[in-house]
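In response to reviewer comment 3 from the previous cycle, which asked for concrete evidence that the modeling workflow produces usable outputs, we include below a single protein chain processed end to end. The sequence was submitted unchanged, and the resulting structure tokens are shown without manual editing.
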Amino acid sequence: MATKPPPPRPAPRLYLATPVVADPAQLVSELPALLAAADVAAVLLRLAPGDERSIIQRAKALAKPVQTAGAALLIDQHFGQVARSGADGANVSGIEAMQEAMPSLKPDRILGVGGLVTRHDAMVAGEAGADYVLFGEPDANGERPSADAICERLDWWAELFEPPCVGFATTLDEAQMFAAAGADFVLVGDFIWQDSRGAQAVLIEAGQAVARGFEASLAHATVTGG
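The workflow returned the following structure tokens.
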């Protein structure tokens, strides 16, 4: 009996990190057109420091336009404010933060985990029930692995494990590389917002880069598979 080939992996999607938000008004007005322009699965809300009430209010203001566009809103780090803000989940850094966040988020909300320095940390997060693992984001000192090292980690994870993996891209080239390496989602942020051409134009280009990377991975799989 012939062995049935594994189904092709779904096309990777964009995961958009916001600028650091103190006043959400401008972003609330920009997001509908931005999210309509590209295939964005989720938005990561990065918040300026504030008290609990201000964090909830800012997240609540952004939840509606994000969710109306069919994307999920995740709050970076502030998992304790997810439920009251109407957000869909949180992204936290490290195993300790994951363990702290899990009781308030699981099973109803999304819990993504970054800050995974070692392969063992990533496996612990996946086995504990993280909804995704994130590779390649800067540490507290602003340092991050090389793009090749991030690709290697994404390829390893995608080959062996079921939970989705996310690659943190700082350029269009990295977005393409990480999609080719096996990322289920490609997280894009600062370079989208800082480009003089405007966020929408660059986000569209990021989506195109991800699509090219995915196409390259399919072509490679076809060749290596005979």
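The longest strand covers residues 13-21. We consider this sufficient to address the reviewer's concern, and the full set will be provided in the supplementary archive.
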